[in-house]
Amino acid sequence: MSDEYKKPAFKKLLDRLQEESWQLELLISGFAIFGLFSAYPNLEIAYQHTQNENNAFFMMVLVVALSACSILIFNLLFHVLLRGLWIGALGLRYVSGDIDYDTLNYSKKFNTYLKDKVGSFDRYIGRLENYCSIIFAISFLLIFYMLAIALTIGSIVFVLTIFIDDHSFSDISTYFGIVLLVFLITGMLLTFFDFITLGFLKKKKWISKIYFPIYWCFSFITLSFLYRPLVYNFLDHKFGKRLSFFLVPIYITLIWITSLYYNQSNYFNFTESSGSSIANSFNYEDMLIEKSDFIENIAINSKVISDPYIKVFIAFDKNIEDEISLFNPSLELEEDIRGITSEMSTVHSEYMTDALKIEYISTFNTLYSVDIDSTMYPTEFILGASIKKQKGFETYIGIKNLKEGKHMIHVNRKTIKKLDTITKTEASIPFWYYPN
User: Fold this and answer.
1) Which of 55, 234, 335, 393 has the fewest CB atoms within 10 Å, measured from its CB?
2) What angle do CA 304, 307, 313 make, to 5 degrees?
3) pTM assigned to the model
4) Angle ∠(28,33,35) on CA atoms, nearest 5
5) In whole angstroms, what is the distance from residue 75 CA to residue 143 CA?
6) Residue 236's closest CA among 204, 198, 208, 262?
7) Torsion over CA of 348, 351, 352 and 356, rounded to 10 degrees?
8) Phi, psi of 368 (to 5 degrees)
């Protein structure tokens, strides 16, 4: 079976398939584009959710997924456009045949120029065929490149987390981690240099001997052994090589274009946080209408309050927990159990005692305070969730004695700066109180 590809019958099958591959390309492109456009908004929502939760691992996974989706959508749409042009050109060739420059009756100068630059119609169709086939193939190759970058960065983060940041390990493992980290970073830079120079390190005899072990290791880290034949097939083709370089600046330009927005004011940026002159919709729960809307930091239940109470919600953040442990050392655990875990794990249940939870919430309430128009109000935050199911801390404050009209609510937080405890305003949110 391993020698099947050497048989003439197999080669004939491949030749026939490549002649008819355009049908499969269009079919796959159509289904893929539909699926990608359906998946992209959900991936964006998931990314925003993990961003709000500061979930670094899933953020990295979703960044790769979103980047892969963007690349595929752009490339496959471009591929479908060119294939459509190619099919149109074939139809025109059936009707009109090749270009007859003599019939055009142009001057000799233009006639010579067009014959040289435009050439025959068949050559144009052949070029379109090459463009379409290469763009379709490179679309999926670029996904593997994205995966390779993510796996390399993931390997570095893994070494930092397991061998260097974890103080429970011995000094020997820390030194081993440093050596491994230096190898990964050096190997990453050399592999990237070899990639952008189209194999420069493989061409020099003495350098290639040093580079080969790094190349071998990184072929497993980046999973390049899965798509290496595709890469080298591109590199030995002049047009494929040029197109690969041409696409990189296009992607950079597209990233820049997506970052553009129209600023309507000389004095305000409409994405600014709430303050005495600004009411940002992300600070009001009932204004989070879109699926992709999440509370960024702190929010109240509404901009206009008619009930005799107001809800204050503080989104959960890893840094909040770190600061609670800093203010209350008795809450520090021997082992940091945050991160990916299993429902079958018993580690969490060992630490999650009622006494620790009460102590945790009590410390949180000593750190956070709320005032309305400079008047302090008693608060009792507990762990809760927003209307978007975000995890966080919530409290309710009675405001029936407030006057009608505009008010400012300030959420203050104690923090340690240069060994001193200071109080700073974490959020200033305007609201209007008109009781029923």
Assistant:
1) 335
2) 70
3) 0.68
4) 95
5) 11
6) 198
7) -160
8) -105, 140
Q: Kindly tell me the number of DSSP H helices and DSSP E strands found in the chain.
A: 14, 9
Selected from 2.40.160, 2.60.40, 1.10.3470, 2.20.28, the CATH number assigned to the domain covering 281-330+350-433 reads: 2.60.40
Please state, as a whole number, how many other Cβ atoms lie within 10 Å of the Cβ of residue 108: 7
Sheet of strand 309-315, all strands in order from the earlier edge strand to the far edge: 298-300, 309-315, 391-398, 382-385
Tokens 């970058």, located at residue: 149
C-alpha dihedral (26, 28, 32, 35), degrees to nearest 10:
110
Tokens in use for 385?
């969730």
What letter represents residue 347's amino acid? V
Distance of CA 312 to the CA centre of its chain: 30
Give me the mean pLDDT over the 266-278 stretch.
78
Token representation of residue 133: 């086939």
Taking only the tens place, the pLDDT of each residue in 12-55 is 666 666 666 777 788 888 888 888 888 888 888 888 777 777 77
Contact call for residues 314 and 416 (beta carbons, < 8 A): no
Each domain of the chain, given as residue ranges in start order, spans: 4-258, 281-330+350-433
Closest C-alpha to 184, from 152, 137, 138, 162: 152
Strands 368-372 and 405-417: antiparallel
Residue with the two structure tokens 């990314």: 47
